[in-house]
Design a protein that fits this description.
The protein is mostly helical and about 190 residues long. Helices cover about 75% and strands about 0% of the residues. The protein has a two-stranded antiparallel ribbon with strand order 1-2. A hairpin with a 5-residue loop joins strand 1 and strand 2. About 5% of the residues have low confidence.
């Protein structure tokens, strides 16, 4: 079997995990176990794993084995890797030629993150302005309430004073009451 991987499409961890319907950390676990049993992945200049179609097929075989045979993932990996021919364990190309393509993808993602960041900053600024406006409204409401309470209290105080004065005017004091009943008036 010819082992030239230089023309194959390479997938990165996120893509490979999606193809295998597993989480990226689970994929890393599989890879570490596979490497501990002699399997070699293609890596870029930054030592990141790249997955070619053969790697995806091998991992699908591992998944199938541990799901159907009720064995551990490590046992499935050991079984599948041990059955691979030696020329499939070590790829002939270890540096990816499409690393520039990946760099473009990373730069595009960085630009997207920057745009998202800018949108978040704008939203945050709008939120801050809204909060300041609401705080000013609350302060105005508190001032209005305090003034209304003070006005009400003043009005109630005035009414009470007027009421007391009226009672004083209507009700004669004890001297006035005695003077009304005095014998002089009866003569």
């Amino acid at each position: 079997m010819h082992n030239d991987t230089s023309q194959e499409k390479a997938y990165w961890s996120k893509e490979a995990a999606a193809m295998l319907n597993i989480a990226t950390p689970t994929l890393r676990k599989y890879c570490n176990l596979m490497e501990s049993h002699g399997y070699v992945f293609i890596r870029n200049a930054h030592n990141q794993r790249a997955f070619i179609q053969r790697d995806i097929i091998v991992m699908k075989n591992i998944q199938e084995l541990f799901r159907t045979k009720d064995i551990s993932v490590e046992q499935a990996i050991k079984t599948v890797v041990s059955e691979l021919p030696t020329n499939q364990l070590t790829p002939s190309v270890t540096v990816l030629e499409n690393e520039d393509l990946d760099l473009k993808q990373v730069m595009a993602e960085i630009d997207e993150i920057k745009q998202d960041n800018e949108q978040l900053k704008n939203t945050l600024e709008e939120f801050k302005k809204l909060m300041i406006d609401q705080q000013e409204q609350i302060i105005q409401q508190q001032k209005y309430i305090a003034a209304s309470i003070e006005k009400r209290d003043h009005h109630i105080t005035q009414l009470l004073q007027q009421s007391i004065e009226k009672k004083k005017e209507k009700k004669p004091n004890w001297l006035q009451r005695i003077a009304r009943i005095s014998p002089r008036d009866t003569d």
